[in-house]
TrEMBL record:
Residue ranges constituting the GST C-terminal domain according to the UniProt record: 171-295
Annotated protein name in UniProt: Putative glutathione S-transferase
Stored CDD domains: GST_C_Omega_like
Pfam family, one: GST_C_2
Organism: Chelatococcus asaccharovorans
Superkingdom to which the source organism belongs: Bacteria
InterPro entries: Glutathione-S-Trfase_C-like (IPR010987), Glutathione-S-Trfase_C_sf (IPR036282), Glutathione_S-Trfase (IPR040079), Glutathione_S-Trfase_N (IPR004045), GST_Omega-like_C (IPR047047), GST_Omega/GSH (IPR016639), Thioredoxin-like_sf (IPR036249)
Length: 336
């Protein structure tokens, strides 16, 4: 675990001394957008036009933020247009690596051993954390974006000319609702589990813990009345919640001490999780082995023995009861 300081790799853990034991996530540094015509997106510079084979995605199967991008790439059928590399689950003294192992897909574009080499290639004096996901532009030899929330929007919208999946996960009519939901889910749940797990004071942990379970209770109640987070239509807000839910009972309950309740104890959340998991293409983006090995093996300040728990038994494939709630514009993956 470490970071780059003016292009040099340094092995160090998150510093929470200046924030009263609170974990604060750093803002992403590369914020450009791939667009249909290469015009600039909402942030960053232009010149990143959609072209098949031009862009490459670096992910960790363990990481919930990277997982969003993997799901959108899969559901929008962009696999053939955007290449993929998968880092090894363990994030240790060199950060993310491409060390061979089951599920690892080597870097065939930059031939890197360590993910930080890609950041240095994009910006020789880069300072900051080296995170996944990364969207790489092979033509300009730089990072387009390392912000998952924006990469999923690009995957949803910019590649329309090259995919037959027209389904819109960010429809104009629901944007306000989706944005509000995302903001709430991000703070209290997606990042909330990290704020609980990486807290270094009792107070910071308890604060994150209380916010997290209050939010899960709120979402549980919402999902008792409606099929999806933004109403009766599946949207990006659901995928953003999904990647935290699918990791919750396997790692956040134990490793991050988010143990008031498991997702399995919430009838609506657990059935909703199963529905999303069972959408064709999704299960193949979920790798519980990478997930468990990454968290329990990489955060040695939390788990010094690096022992990965053998349980719990998880079953996301059993029948769910979500069909009792109405759905509109159901997402159906088109034939391959
Ligand atoms: N804002 C980023 C956050 C990504 C992120 O924090 N990824 C984690 C893995 S789950 C990471 O790579 N951390 C490495 C580090 O902090 O050094 C996004 O959503 O894309």
């Amino acid at each position: 675990m470490g970071m780059l300081v003016e292009g040099q790799w340094q092995d160090r853990w998150y510093d929470t001394t200046r924030t009263g034991g609170r974990f604060e996530r750093q803002d992403s540094a590369f914020r450009n957008w791939v667009t249909a015509d290469g015009a600039p997106g909402p942030t960053g510079g232009g010149g990143f036009k959609v072209e098949p084979g031009r862009y490459h995605l670096y992910v960790s199967l363990a990481c919930p933020w990277a997982h969003r991008t993997l799901i959108l790439r899969k559901l929008k059928k962009l696999d053939g247009l955007i290449g993929l590399s998968v880092v090894a689950p363990l994030m240790a003294e060199h950060g993310w690596t491409f060390t061979e192992g089951s599920g690892v897909v080597p870097d065939t574009v930059n031939h890197a051993r360590y993910l930080y080499e890609i950041y240095v290639k994009a910006k020789h004096d880069y300072s900051g954390r080296v995170t996944v996901p990364v969207l790489w532009d092979s033509e300009r030899q730089t990072i387009v974006s390392n912000e998952s929330a924006e990469i999923i929007r690009m995957f949803n919208g910019a590649f329309a000319a090259f995919t037959d999946v027209a389904y819109d996960f960010y429809p104009a009519a629901l944007r306000e609702e989706i944005d509000a939901t995302n903001a709430f889910v991000y703070r209290a749940i997606n990042n909330g589990v990290y704020r609980a797990g990486f807290a270094t004071t009792q107070e910071a942990y308890e604060e994150a813990f209380a916010t997290l379970f209050q939010a899960l209770d709120t979402v549980e109640e919402r999902l008792s009345r409606q099929r999806y987070l933004a109403g009766s239509r599946l949207t990006e807000a659901d995928w953003r919640l999904f990647t935290t839910l699918v990791r919750f009972d396997a790692v956040y309950v134990g490793h991050f001490k988010c143990n008031l309740r498991r997702i399995a104890d919430y009838p609506n959340l657990s059935n909703y999780l199963k529905e999303l998991y069972q959408i064709p293409g999704v299960a193949e983006t979920v790798d519980i082995t990478h997930i468990k090995r990454h968290y329990y093996g990489s955060h040695t300040t939390i788990n010094p023995t690096r022992i990965v728990p053998a349980g719990p038994a998880l079953d996301f494939t059993s029948p769910h009861d979500r069909e009792r709630l109405p759905a509109v514009d159901s997402f159906r993956p088109s034939s391959p």
